[in-house]
């Protein structure tokens, strides 16, 4: 009965019989013996009730309307749910065939009506017990099978997850290490971690944190690691150490802990952040340095300067700020290209570094502007001394791409505290002093003074007034005659630019041409000069003043950046002047660069039919020899040579050799700035062909020049 009890405390019997009168006695009898009895009045009803009835035994009448007992039993046996429920047939039939049919239909037993109650009870009890114990067994077996299957599935899942997590652990880009937090024993570490910490994987099991040398380098790294894990917060710590190849490894360390059985384990993740650190360092470097020269940039320089000022204030010392600008850089950059320009700037930076004292700072502000700040000084003399050293360092020619280039510098100096208490004031004062140095000629330095500041203010207001001066028609051309020394004939005029300032009157070109060049407007004004000079000459020719060419100055900016060839062509076309009456005076510094660009442009200008001459000859550093390379028609000896040639024998010798060479090369020689009869006589004796200077006339406004030429022509015609 224990098996029965374990399934269902009260055994349940379903009686299927179409005659309820037969049932009353059996039901009472069974119920009296502890059975729960259900009744169905036919096969169909019995089958319908099966899913809910769930009997432990069925007493089945054979002869019933509808489907009989045999068929009902067959159907019960055909269904997996009811197949095992024992069926005892009850019938009045007592023939052998019926009994055989009953067993064939799946019955377990057979009782004949009228029943022997005790027999019926005994049969029912034995089958119910058998059925119940079988059911209990199969249920237990099913449970066991399910348990085994669940365990097996759990094992498989565990194995799969182990494989998955091991793979994650092994292939993680970060280093992962697990260790016992109490003993420090290393439990596991992936390959990346071993490589980072430079430990062998094989010996891991016997290792503790204290055995890892690299952790000691981190200021008791094993302790830090343990604390990090114990803290339990995912906190990142930054470490860096030197690798055997000398490079630096930067690592972020994160720790956490967890209980595994009895052990408290620490788990740390080591992330290699070297590339990020390097990128950050690079960004920081780039933010503070000039990428071309590697010198500090403006931001860093201002920072250092502020620092030097603070120290000087504390120690009662001075700070000097030297602002440098290369005298010839724009021309070199324009004519030889940016590649050469950049290489020159790099070389200049190297030379500047070589003259610095330990605490001086050299920086590049941009373009060809450099700055040096020197702290801890006692007086201006020390600043001047640095300036002299810089000028000396930059003096020797630079050898770049097989070319020898000169790039001297002009330096403006300002001093803390007298010229400014703050960095930006010092920079402004040095800038003003540098302008002065530039105006005084190449390779100079100037200290700032208040007078300079006033001059600089004037300079700036002039610069403002220049805006739109061309459009307002404030420019005029003056003309200075050029006279053949042998015949006294006027062979040309030089067009010289003047600015008719509304308040200041006529302003000399030395005051405003540098300003025009600085803001790139010389190109536009130069075009106007070309057209105006051609127009004037064409008009004079129309008035009978013939055979007199006009010379126009061309600046480096116009030559290289202003599309000079098309400007000249347009000026000639617009004014109708024949090209042979136009001469272009190119400054020596411009042609100094024996570049492909210079040759090409000169060739194209020559092809137009204009004359080319070299202005200010002798003021550059070039050798006379390079004259041969260019398609020139003439050279102009600079007025400084003419001025000194009678007093200084060396100058006289230079003038003589220039004249000799010009003759050999079939170049016309014009002497500029001739002021005295003695100078003229000397030039005549030296076979100079043409003179220009106050001795004949200074540059004149157009009407005066026209009157001069008219008078000259009238006299000449009369002669
Ligand atoms: N001491 C002295 N000086 C004399 C004598 N005879 C002439 N001069 C001056 O010498 C300068 C000659 O012009 P430059 O060498 O081409 O030098 C010119 C030229 O480089 C530049 N310049 C003038 N006009 C133009 C122009 O239209 N375009 C460009 N790009 N530059 C110009 O400005 C410079 C200065 O021009 P200016 O002031 O007109 O100065 C002129 C002229 O007035 C003399 O006997 N003694």
From TrEMBL:
Domain Response regulatory residues, every copy: 12-128
The organism of origin for this protein: Novosphingobium endophyticum
Domain EAL: 459-713
Gene Ontology terms describing biological process: cellular response to nitric oxide; phosphorelay signal transduction system
4-aspartylphosphate, modified sites: 61
Domain GGDEF: 317-450
Domain of life: Bacteria
Pfam family, one: GGDEF
A GO molecular-function annotation: cyclic-guanylate-specific phosphodiesterase activity
The reaction(s) this protein catalyses: 3',3'-c-di-GMP + H2O = 5'-phosphoguanylyl(3'->5')guanosine + H(+)
Tagged with keyword Phosphoprotein: yes
Stored Gene3D superfamilies: 3.30.70.270, 3.40.50.2300, EAL domain, PAS domain
Keyword annotations of the record: Phosphoprotein
Keyword DNA repair in annotation: no
Official protein name in the record: Two-component system response regulator
């Amino acid at each position: 009965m224990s098996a029965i009890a374990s399934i269902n405390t009260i055994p349940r019997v379903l009686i299927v019989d179409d005659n309820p009168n037969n049932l009353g006695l059996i039901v009472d009898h069974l119920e009296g013996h502890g059975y729960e009895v259900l009744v169905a009045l036919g096969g169909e009803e019995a089958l319908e009730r099966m899913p809910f009835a769930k009997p432990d035994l069925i007493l089945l009448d054979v002869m019933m309307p509808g489907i009989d007992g045999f068929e009902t039993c067959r159907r019960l046996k055909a269904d997996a749910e009811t197949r095992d429920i024992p069926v005892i047939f009850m019938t009045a039939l007592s023939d052998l065939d019926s009994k055989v049919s009953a067993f064939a239909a799946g019955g377990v037993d057979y009782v004949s009506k009228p029943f022997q109650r005790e027999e019926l009870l005994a049969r029912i009890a034995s089958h119910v017990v058998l059925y119940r114990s079988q059911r209990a067994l199969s249920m237990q077996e099913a449970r066991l099978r399910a348990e085994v299957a669940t365990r097996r599935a759990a094992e498989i899942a565990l194995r799969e997850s182990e494989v998955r997590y091991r793979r994650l652990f092994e292939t993680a880009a970060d280093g992962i290490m697990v260790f016992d937090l109490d003993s420090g024993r290393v439990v596991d570490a992936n390959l990346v971690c071993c490589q980072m910490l430079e430990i062998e994987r094989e010996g891991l099991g016997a290792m503790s944190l204290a055995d890892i040398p690299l952790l000691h380098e981190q200021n008791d790294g094993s302790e830090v690691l343990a604390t990090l894990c114990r803290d339990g917060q995912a906190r990142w710590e930054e470490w860096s150490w030197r690798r055997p190849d000398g490079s630096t490894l930067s690592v972020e360390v994160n720790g956490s802990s967890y209980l595994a059985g009895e052990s408290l384990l620490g788990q740390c993740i080591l992330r290699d952040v070297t590339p990020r650190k390097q990128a950050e360092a690079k960004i920081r470097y780039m933010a503070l340095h000039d990428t071309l020269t590697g010198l500090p940039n403006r931001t860093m320089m201002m920072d250092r300067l502020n620092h030097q000022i603070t120290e000087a204030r504390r120690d009662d010392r001075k700070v000097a700020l030297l602002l440098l600008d290369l005298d010839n850089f724009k021309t070199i950059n324009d004519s030889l290209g940016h590649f050469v320009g950049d290489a020159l700037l790099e070389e200049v930076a190297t030379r500047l570094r070589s003259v610095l004292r330990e605490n001086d700072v050299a920086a590049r502000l941009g373009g060809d502007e450099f700055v040096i700040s020197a702290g801890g000084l006692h007086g201006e003399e020390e600043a001047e001394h640095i300036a002299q050293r810089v000028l000396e360092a930059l003096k020797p020619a630079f050898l770049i791409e097989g070319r020898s280039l000169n790039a001297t510098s002009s330096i403006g100096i300002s001093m803390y505290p007298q010229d400014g208490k703050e960095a930006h004031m010092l920079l402004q004062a040095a800038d003003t002093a540098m302008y002065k140095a530039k105006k005084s000629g190449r390779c100079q330095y100037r200290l700032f003074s208040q007078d300079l500041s006033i001059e600089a203010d004037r300079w700036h207001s002039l610069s403002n007034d220049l805006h739109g001066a061309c459009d307002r028609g404030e420019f005029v051309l003056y003309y200075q005659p050029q006279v053949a020394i042998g015949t006294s004939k006027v062979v040309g005029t030089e067009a010289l630019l003047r600015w008719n300032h509304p308040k200041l009157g006529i302003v000399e070109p030395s005051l405003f041409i540098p300003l025009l060049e600085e803001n790139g407007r010389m190109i536009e004004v130069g075009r106007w000069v070309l057209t105006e000079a051609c127009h004037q000459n064409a008009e004079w020719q129309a008035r009978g003043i013939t055979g007199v060419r006009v010379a126009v100055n061309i600046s480096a900016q116009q030559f290289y950046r202003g599309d000079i060839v098309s400007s000249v062509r347009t000026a000639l076309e617009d004014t109708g002047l024949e090209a042979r009456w136009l001469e272009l005076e190119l400054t020596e510094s411009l042609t100094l660069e024996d570049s492909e660009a210079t040759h090409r442009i000169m060739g194209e200008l020559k092809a137009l039919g204009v004359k080319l001459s070299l202005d200010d000859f002798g003021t550059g550093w070039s050798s006379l020899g390079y004259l041969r390379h260019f398609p020139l028609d003439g050279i102009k000896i600079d007025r400084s040579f003419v001025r000194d040639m009678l007093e200084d024998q060396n100058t006289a010798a230079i003038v003589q050799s220039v004249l000799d060479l010009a003759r050999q090369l079939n170049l016309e020689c014009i002497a500029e700035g001739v002021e005295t009869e003695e100078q003229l006589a000397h030039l005549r004796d030296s076979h100079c062909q043409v003179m220009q200077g106050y001795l004949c006339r200074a540059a004149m406004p157009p009407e005066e020049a026209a009157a001069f030429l008219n008078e000259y022509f009238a006299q000449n015609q009369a002669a």
